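JOB MANIFEST
job_type = single_chain_structure
chain_count = 1
residues = 898
[input]
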Amino acid sequence: MTSNWHNLGADEAIAKLKSSRSGLSAAEAEDRLRQHGPNELTEKGKRPPILVFLRQFASPLIYILLAAALIEFVVLRKPTDASVILAVVFINAIIGFVQESRAERAMEALKKLAVPYAKVLREGTTGRILSSELVPGDVVALEAGDKIPADARLIEAASLSVDESILTGESVPVDKFTGAMEGEAMVADMGNMVHMGCAVANGRGIAVVTATGMSTEIGKITACVQDVKPPPTPLQRNVARLGRYIGILALGIIGVLIIIGLVREYTFTEMFEFAVPAAVSAIPEGLPVMVTVVLAFGMRRMARRHALIRKLTAVETMGAVTVICSDKTGTLTESEMTLRQMYLGGRTIEITGTGYRPEGQFLENGQELSPLEDRDLRLALRVSAQCNDSTLRLEGDRHQLLGDPTEGAFLVAALKAGLDQKTLQKEQPRLAELPFLSEKRYMATLHASPEGKDGDKVVYVKGALDRVLAMCGRVLQNGALEELTPDNIAGIESKNLEMATRALRVMALAYTEDISAPEQLSHDHLRGRLILVGLVGMIDPPRQEAKKAVADCKRAGIKVVMITGDQKATAVAIADELSLPPGEAITGLELEGMSDEELNDRIEKVSVFARVEPLHKLRIVDALKTKGYTVAMTGDGVNDGPALRSADIGIAMGIKGTDVAREASDIVLTDDNFASIVSAVEEGRVIFGNIRRSVFYLLSTNVGELFTWALAIVAGIPLPVVAVQILWINLVTDGVCTIPLGLEPKHSNVLEEPPRRAKEGIVYRGMLARIAFVALFMAAGTFLIFRWELPRVGLDEARTMAFSVMVAFQWFNALNARSDRQSVFKLGLSGNRLLLGGIGLAVLLQVMVIYAPPFRALFHTVRLSANAWGTIILVAISVFVAEEVRKLAAPRIFAAGK
């Protein structure tokens, strides 16, 4: 079946669908329902929760821990130690399950757009049926307020306009008509079509259904959303890569230990006694918990800056963004049409202020005017407020528009001059009107004369310049009336062109004082009688904070690309005002004609995409990702769902966004403001740096433990620390310090730094060298104290000393981890009070393990004397002193690869 319904005339479309203006018969509708299926959006099956939970165990690190638990239980006969290891595994699985089990509600939100009932014509009779029973060829009736139940070709339209913003991103309702169109057209340009899920704003219409269910435009988007899998985030890729490396390291260490055991003729039990603690020590069990908690706190910080996080990993991914693809309307702009300029009798008047807040000045040649003392300007503003069906009201500290955005711009301009619509309506009640019709393209209202003379009437008109000018015989020039001459017309058209090149939407204002006006206005009555007052130019202006945010992006090395459903000239003008990076501007039709290879070649040169459709946005995102960019995509409509899912970060608008966009996104902006995206980028960069601090801290513990085992095995002495003590160090001691490290305040303006490369890992070459540096101090200190104490106090107390010194090393290393370059004393010892609290808690917990009988039995410890603690602290502080000296002497020695 054809998809170019817009190219066919109304009767041709009906014939093609084998229908009629009186609709289908009941029998034919039933046959077509069987053929095409119900008019519903179908959903693919979801993964059962049990599979989501079991997937958490699919990790090399988990396999190693499970094997270690099995050996502890079966071979070494240590059920308590095995239970502790299994508890760690299950806690991590539960945390992962909670993260992943966020319901996929994008599909449900799309299904809400399906209309439950439709008014349909069958066999010449209008009835109300379930919209799921609609079939191609059905004739449906539409009126203001209706949601459109299926894609359809209009066959009748009376003042019909449709809000298509959820599908096309168009910021104002689209006027509809019934005539055929020529050539290819984007959905946003199909003026004779209506689409499922959009809403009728004004008027009424009759349409014949051309597509239902998954064949509709929304159905195609639904299929696209289902097929697009969100890419793994940089953090997920980094953690997975780190896990693989650690797993390989652990297996390699176990292999080496087995070889050593075979050479030394150890029994299998003895080899396992060495291998299990080594395997456990190689794995940073606290890593998943640390990442989750740090991201959760980051999520709270971002929420305070108007960015609600729906997926935890999005917190960190924002810090890696290198391209932001932003919608124009409402994100980069105010989403509130604003009068910028008026052209009255050869005079150009600029109007300041933005949005619906009635604050601003009227300037001529830079000099402020008093609008109420300027006759022409006062009349123009009176026409603006009176020939107007919208209202503006104050809600809290915001002005809210009830009605059309274009009319809102007129109302606000009048209010800036002190002309209130309600007051004017009392002075000049409306007596009659000609509503705006798409084929006429103007509106007229009849009022009592402002002079208050009995019987006097005045008509106010606003509309498209070509239509209004054609009805004018005279023009207002500096308070005097002049005949409209070819020279006047040329000057007016020249000004119109000038304003249009600035992407201003131009409309004309006119009036006539007419005693003979009939009770009901007619178009014929106005022809040739009107007096042109002037032209007005309006635009949806850029947000002031968006300009600063774009500048911040430039400094941060982030490219901003505008993607909009608006016209190309408008998009380019706004891009220039925002100082977007110079580049090409292309339309959806041009994009349609490009192959993927051509798009990939040009994508880095383009700054503006205009008149785009849903699949275009998806192609743009995919092309940028192919070039290695980490892409953030903003959106608010149904049309944005697939691209939001495909982008590395999907950002939905919280105020004007649809449920579909919000459910497909990772982040929701509560203020719909581009500046909030840049704030989220800043937080993301801070959080990534904090995750690196925490990972350094965790891995230096693990490597220090491994070095200790290596020294013990080479020396041929018992292990200084047993498996259950390692778990205590890795989970509890490290845990209470790792999370505060993840909340370290930022040390510098991170937006002054270039974005990190997408492939750049959490761990880099310099960090590995630094880990080895501090781990050697930890291993040497633990080994020496154990070797010294073993012949003097016996195995249990020597192990308790070694266990405690390794724990104390972590207390001091936590201070080291705050910065790889700056001294703790330069940062301020109290700069991270949470960390000081964490270290204090770690000290108390260690004291409990050494002195509380139940814990002594569980962790195989004995009581230590005060002298023993003195020795422990003296040895452990060496790692802090070494790092402070290193930061003073060679602060950048470990910066390679950062």
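[summary]
DSSP finds 35 helices and 28 strands in the chain.
Residues 674-715 form the longest helix (42 residues).
exit_status = 0
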